[in-house]
Amino acid sequence: MDVQNCRRRVACALCLFLAASLLPPEINARESLTIESVAADRSLWPREVTVSVAHQVPLLVNGKVSGSMQVSPGRVYPVVSIQPSGVEVDAMGSSLTFPPADTDILPRAETVRTRLETLAAARTAATPQVKQSPPPTASKPTAAGPTNEIVDRLNGKLVIYNGSSLERFEASALKGKKYLAVYFSASWCGPCRKFTPQLVDWYNGHKSRLAKFDVIFVSQDNSKEEMLDYMKHDGMPWPALKFANASSSPLEKYSGRGIPCLVVIDQQGKVLSHSYKGEEYLGPSKVIKDLEGLLATE
Predict the structure, then answer these.
(1) Cis before 260 (ω within 30)
(2) 140 FRET partner, CA 20 to 30 A, in 167, 178, 192, 273?
(3) Is residue 252 within 8 Å of 235, Cβ to Cβ?
(4) Distances (CA, A) of 216 to 136, 240, 242
(5) pLDDT the model gives residue 128
């Protein structure tokens, strides 16, 4: 692990610690996690664990086992599945299962839980209070912007993760947004799982600009259950198309040849930034920088 990644991990852990310290007492007083509770709730599964014991890893040559390699304690592996009896990991292409006590699964799951609760608390705090509408006046109505045509076509087709399940999201809440960032992604996509937390962090850091923009998730998952698990695990705070409407929405025309794909459109539905330039893949990080530039001019 290089120095930059170490610093990033330390900074992330510090942020989570500080965020947890600001949570209400009822959240801080929660029960400790057990391997049984973590195994039963996929949203608590970390992406990786550290193995604390020395072990052998099979060496694969052309898909066949050809000897093994001794690995020292401290190796980090991606998580495949979690059961009360053991944690299955991807060890350089081979599936290995370790007793939970030989990994840091519980501390990592606790970090995931803290992050989800912090996002839920932030989302609740950011929800505007409903104000009493003033009596109607005889003022001249303002013409709706071109984006409203797209928004109207999304009416009844959007959902949002409320901390436990998906609930209806009113498309009318997007009216007046100058920019919409459409995010095509899926839980089975490795690069997507790497980028989505970056997008979540960026989004949460720009909540003061949400009057000008928002993100819409368009799932490329294989089922609505996978879509829910993805939004839950990564704490997506933005609305999403219902799984059944993902391939037939007015946003589908903006998708690229692959994922992750992020696209920014303006009030007229014109593409301002895209992860693809023709056949060339520029990536979603470039689109975030472009959107930052647009918001900076506001």
Answers:
(1) yes
(2) 178
(3) no
(4) 32, 5, 11
(5) 53
Q: Which residues, 6 or more positions from 132, have their beta carbon under 8 angstroms from its beta carbon? A: none
Cα 20 from Cα 8, distance rounded (Å): 18
For 183-229, the pLDDT digits (tens) are 999 999 999 999 999 999 999 998 888 889 999 999 999 999 999 99
Give 40-122's CATH code, choosing from 2.60.40, 2.30.30, 1.10.60, 1.10.1450.
2.30.30
**Alpha-carbon distance 165 to 161, whole Å?**
6
Q: What's the N-to-C CA distance of the chain in angstroms?
A: 40
What are the residue boundaries of the structural domains of the chain, listed by start?
40-122, 147-296
Q: Collapsing DSSP states into helix, strand and coil, what is residue 57?
A: strand
Helix/strand/coil for 151 = helix
Q: For 147-296, which CATH class?
A: alpha beta
Instruction: Give the separation between CA 185 and CA 43, rounded to whole angstroms.
Output: 18
Backbone torsion region of residue 199, taken as left when φ is above 0, otherwise alpha when ψ lies between -120 and 50, otherwise beta = alpha
* % pLDDT > 70, the chain: 79
Tokens describing residue 171: 């498309």
